[in-house]
Amino acid sequence: MAPFSTGSLKRDDRRLILHFYAAVFEKEDPKLRHLPLAVQQKQIIVTCNYEARRHGLYKLQRVTEARKKCPGAIIVLGEDLTRFRNASKENYNFLKGFAWSGKAERLGFDEVCQAAVRSRGRG
Fold it and tell me: What is the mean pLDDT of residues 79-99?
């Protein structure tokens, strides 16, 4: 059983969360965006996209359990970190360009933190 509810996942345009590892594979092969996709390291699912979550998959799930829960899931190997490091550098440089101070803090190769403030028009 999943440690959290995977009931109805709804879009929330007020925030953006990227399942970084899965997004890297989806960018390489856009057909994966609408299929249940999970990324495996060792015998564990390290992340999965929303479509996979709708089918009961979740982070830190054993691969054998994930295959039983969703036999049609595409489970890709994420052991080689090269593609993630390259994507991380690309994302960091992109996001850094939007920071008013020109600064963004890298918290790891799958996380970037920057202050974002909603500006209000004058007048």
Answer: 83
Contact yes or no for 74/25 (Cβ under 8 A): no
For residue 39, what are the β-bridge partners? 47, 76
Residue 87, C-beta contacts closer than 8 angstroms, at least 6 positions apart:
20, 23, 24, 27
Cα separation, 43 vs 64, in Å, equals 8
pLDDT band of 13, cuts 50, 70, 90: low
Q: Which of 68, 16, 17 is nearest to 45 (CA)?
A: 68
pTM: 0.69
Catalytic positions, please?
Answer: 111
Q: Determine the Cα–Cα distance for residues 35 and 73; give it in Å rounded to an integer.
A: 7
Q: Which two tokens stand for residue 39?
A: 């990324």
